[in-house]
Amino acid sequence: MKTFTKLTVAIAAAVLAPAVMAAAPAKGAGVNGEKIYSANCASCHAAGVLGAPKVGDKAAWGPRVKQGKEVLYTHALNGFKMMPPKGGNPGLKDDEVKAAIDFMAKS
Q1: Residue 41: left (phi > 0), alpha (psi -120 to 50), or beta?
Q2: How many other CB atoms are there within 10 angstroms of residue 68's CB atom?
Q3: Residue 87 and residue 59: Cα distance in Å, rounded?
Q4: Which of 50, 59, 36 is closest to 81 using CA atoms?
Q5: What is the Cα–Cα distance from 12 to 72, expressed in whole angstroms?
Q6: Which of 11, 27, 35, 84 has the CA that lies 20 to 30 A from 41?
Q7: Coil, strand or helix at 50
Q8: Are 107 and 55 in contact (CB under 8 A)?
Q9: Helix 58-66 vs helix 69-78: angle between axes, to the nearest 10 degrees?
Q10: Neighbouring C-beta atoms of residue 27, cutoff 10 Å
Q11: Residue 26: what pLDDT?
């Protein structure tokens, strides 16, 4: 009976593994930084609320970008000055926050 159970599990794993792998998105795949920005970040970054750098303001973003993406990511993920962690949306995944930062920094 033990052999039958092991064989059944092995067959099930072999049959289901490709379907599970196909359903699991690649890390960062399909994350649209502009959509994340629009839904979560624009409320402050579109108008420059409390000193938030506006999207498209190269003078404001330039010095920040020079610090490197990792610094920008760390600030966005953990909070910085008046900005709460993840812009106040703890439900965002790290990759989503990073995609929004990438969008804002290159705009």
Answers
A1: alpha
A2: 10
A3: 22
A4: 50
A5: 44
A6: 27
A7: helix
A8: yes
A9: 100
A10: 9
A11: 37
What local confidence, expressed as pLDDT, does residue 3 receive? 53
Beta bridge partners of 83: 80
pTM of the model: 0.71
Length of the chain equals: 107
User: Tokens 């990759």 belong to which residue?
Assistant: 95
Alpha carbons 55 and 2: distance in angstroms, whole number: 62
Rounded CA gap, 96 and 25, in Å?
13
pLDDT in tens, 60-103: 999 999 999 999 999 999 999 999 999 999 999 999 999 999 99
Residue 30 in tokens = 């399909």
Cα-Cα end-to-end distance for the chain: 63
DSSP, residue by residue, 59-83? HHHHHHHHT-HHHHHHHHHH-BTTB
Mind listing the pLDDT tens digit for each residue in 27-44?
A: 456 899 999 999 999 999
pLDDT at 107: 85
